[in-house]
Amino acid sequence: MRDKTNRARDALNWIPADLPRDDWVKAGMAAHAAGLAFSDFDTWSVTADSYDAKACKATWRSFKSTPGGVGAGTLFGMARDHGWTEGNPRAAPAQPKRLNEPSRKPALGMSAAE
């Protein structure tokens, strides 16, 4: 049987990170409750256009496990709402987006393809 952490990571990766803030926070709380690490949440969050590294870390640090609060089931429910099914993993993004990177002009004498 697959490891619980891998199952939770697969589910998180089916949820788009470009959610309204309240839903993004809920997904993070659910990921936290499911035993995922900050690095999993951050890797997922960086795919959103609105990604803010400081806000991501501060939000993660604010998550507390409380009885009756958001749990791992919320993560799996959100993932199912976005097409996730057990045993159908989606890989994490291969490369995080580069934020605020200016477009580069080719050096003098070089084409844009070089």
Overview of the structural elements:
The protein has 114 residues and is mainly α. It has a domain at 4-64 and 71-81. It is 46% helix and 0% strand. It has 5 helices and no strands. The chain has helices at residues 4-14, 21-33, 38-45, 53-62, 72-81. Helix 2 runs antiparallel to helix 3 (38-45). The N and C termini lie far apart (47 Å). Mean pLDDT is 83; it is low at 92-98.
Largest sheet: number of strands, sense, barrel closure: none
Shape: globular
Summed up, the helix count is: 5
Radius of gyration: 17 Å
Structural class: mainly alpha
Count all strands and give the number.
0
How many angstroms does the end-to-end distance come to? 47 Å
In percent, how helical is the residue content? 40-55%
Low-confidence stretches: 92-98
Overall pLDDT level: 83
Elements, N to C (H/E) = HHHHH
Highlighted features:
mainly alpha; 114 residues; globular
Question: Layout of helices and strands, plus pairs?
Answer:
Elements (H helix, E strand, L loop, with lengths): L3 H11 L6 H13 L4 H8 L7 H10 L9 H10 L33
Short précis:
The chain contains five helices and no strands. It is an all-alpha fold and 114 residues long. α1 crosses α5 (72-81), α2 (21-33) packs antiparallel against α3 (38-45) and α2 crosses α5.
